[in-house]
Amino acid sequence: MICLPLHRRRLRVLSLLLSLLAASCDEHKQAAAPPPAPAVGVRLAALKGVSQSFEFVGRIKAIDKVDVRARVEGFLDKVLFREGQDVKENELLYQIEKIQFQALVEQAQANLAAAEAEATNAELQYNRNLELSKKQFSPQSLVDKNKADLDSAQAKILQTEAALTQARVNLAYTDIRSPIDGRIGRTAYTMGNLVNPASGVLATIVSQDPMYVLFPVSVRDLELIRAARREPEGGLAKIEVRIRLSSGQDYPERGLWNLTDPQVDQQTDTLIMRATIPNPRDELIDGQFVTVSIRERQEEPRLVVPQAALQVDQSGYYVLVVDDQHKVEQRRVATGSNRDIDVVVTSGLREGDKVIVDGIQKVRPGQVVQEALLPAEATAK
Question: Helices in the chain by DSSP H: which ranges?
Answer without folding.
Answer: 6-32, 99-134, 140-172, 219-229
